[in-house]
Amino acid sequence: MTGDQATERRAALVQRLLFVVAVFLVPFGIASAPNIFNDGDTSWHLAAGQWMVQHGAIPHTDPFSHTAGGRPWVPLEWLAELIFAGCFRAAEAAMRPGFGDWPLFNHVLPFDVARAHEELSGVEHPTVWTAERDKALWDALRG
Q1: Are 116 and 17 in contact (CB under 8 A)?
Q2: Phi and psi dihedrals of 72, rounded to 5?
Q3: Using an 8 Å Cβ cutoff, are 62 and 70 in contact?
Q4: pTM over 0.70
């Protein structure tokens, strides 16, 4: 693949991603709270929503923490967490036909969504992704 082809594919990915963000994530974010993505626990909420979808239940003990695993947990934001999980699945389903054969597709989708949201929100210096942030996000999302 030439550099121009890779650039074109990346541009198409960004355009589709921005569409998914605009259609699915932005309305929910605006409706629920103006600062929703300033919450450092967004990945945690997404993982909790995915857990609920997988298990068909609302957790009453912490299923994620190494140090607090099994301790009582009151999921006050369960509905928002289910909405996050649904939005993530919709974005993944919309993107997979065009980009699912990319080796890093599953890895970069959450980062692209978060980065696109920051850029659309006018963040002057979008978040720099570090190895630690990468690991923390994937531990939360995929268990």
Answers
A1: yes
A2: -55, 140
A3: yes
A4: no
Write down the residue that tokens 């289910």 correspond to.
82
- Quick check: 17 and 115 in contact, CB under 8 A? no
Judged by DSSP in three states, 72 sits in strand
Dihedral (CA of 49, 88, 123, 27) sign: negative
Q: How would residue 51 be classed by pLDDT, with cut points 50, 70 and 90?
A: very high
> Contact, 136 vs 43, CB < 8 A?
yes
Token pair recorded at residue 61: 């003990």
Radius of gyration of the chain (CA): 16
Confidence of residue 62 (pLDDT cuts 50, 70, 90): confident
CA–CA separation, 99 vs 108, rounded Å? 11
Higher pLDDT, 119 or 13: 13
Q: Is 34 helix (H, G, I), strand (E, B) or coil?
A: coil
Distances in Å between the alpha carbon of 12 and those of 37, 75, 86, 90, 99? 25, 38, 23, 18, 10
pLDDT for 103 beyond 70: no
Question: 31-36 long-range CB contacts below 8 Å, 24 or more apart?
Answer: 32/80
